[in-house]
Amino acid sequence: MKKIKNNLATDVNEKITLKEYAAFSSSTAVSKIATAMSGFFGGLVASTYMGLSEGAFATYSTIIFILGFWDIANDVIVSSFLDKSRRTFGNWGRFKPWIMLMIIPFNLVVILQTLPINAWFPEIGDTFKVAYLVLLYFLNDAFSTFYNAALTALNARRTTNNMERGYIAAIESILSSSIGACGTYIAMLLPYMLPNASEAERYFYGYSIITIAAIPLAIWNIAVTKERISDPPKADPPKLRQVYGQIIRNKPLMIYMISEILGQGMSIGYSLMTYAFIACFKAEQFTLTFFRDTPIQFEYAYKGENYAELLSLASISSLVTTAVSLFLAPIIRKWVDDKILYMCTRLGTGICYAGMFISIFPFESHTPAQIFVRIVVWYAIHGLTTGFYQTVPGLIQMATYDYAEYKFGERNEATVSSLKNTLSRILGNCTAYATNLFLIYVGYTAYANTPELMPVEAKSSLVYMFALFPALFCFLAVIPMFFYKLSGKKHNEIVKELEARRQHNLDEIKQMQQTIT
Known about the structure:
By secondary structure, this protein is an all-alpha fold. 73% of the residues lie in helices and 2% in strands. Helix 4 (70-84) runs antiparallel to helix 18 (413-442).
């Protein structure tokens, strides 16, 4: 039997190969380290490392907030182009060439965004710094939209098997949880590896090396991935109005997206985590005693300055609970529906952050060591939901793609992904703007390099908001899922119907090729 030319499997039941799993795992592992480092350091670039004045920082934040709404037009243009185009590029299929085209400029811009301008060029003024950051933000948005939309569409077509989707999600969960924390570990080690460099320079060197290493692994992942879900032969591309009409009428997708977008509100709390640690612990010194009055008792003396050590300890504290969660996720998923797991995960995360707030209130009555221990305890308990949170949402989104194909005959993954990312980024842009304004309001920018002088009210506000925002938005994200009906038996029936349709599409493609040859 002759192989199909656009890298499709010859049978919808063809299994994902070990080589594909290996390529996906390697690429994901390095990507998660880069993401963790970006999450740890990224917000500090403009607020701390660039040396912007308070007025310049406010100006930059406002410009980025306004530019964030460009995502609406940008994502619509890119995603509709990808989904409407039916052109395949030989064995590379529909999406791989666009990923390959964008991978180098996208990563180059990311590296340039971490350039330690203030440390290397202290004479440069605020105007140039703001213009530099804004330009790179615009370029990053343009390249990343194309790259991520194409990659998401490609990933969504790797397999038709729901169990294999679960395996891929589980691999990503394990790597996210066990390796993702490496961002804070690298941040902890950088002062010892580069003792003569500033914090901004350490971030630039560390992030550049990891980003460069990620490129060949990403290319390998793309090269071995197959598109196993094909479009019907000679299918006319749908019009943009029709595509968005299908998305709006995809009720399970809309409910899921509303829940996920509400969940993105957690980011305002997460973005405050590093600032809270800087404010509370950078200038403090204390000793922590573990397993007190037991044969394995030991002490950890924190000398201040390298607050990344404390963030690393927080990450380490959740490793055991996260491992338990990752082990239980695929087992429990056999008997409990994804919708229920999703809702329980959101509720559990919200309860953990609410408990964190309650345990550190009032702030003034606790020492820095007590505050740190309380944060770490709740962070560790939060690890029990991590495996489910990393696995289940992606599987629910895959199910909504199946529903779209079942009801309308079109999957439109790129458009759905871009629309979801657009709405998430708009909300994320609003929360980032609110975070920056909050930092200015509490006086963080004035004391970023002298946290020992920061008023206690500023410190308490940072810690409270770090706990309250994730709790609030987790609880809100649960509400829409009460109306989600695509689960269990109904989804299984849809999948069986789709398998028959997909095999029919492949048979038609093979018949057309035999006729041509």
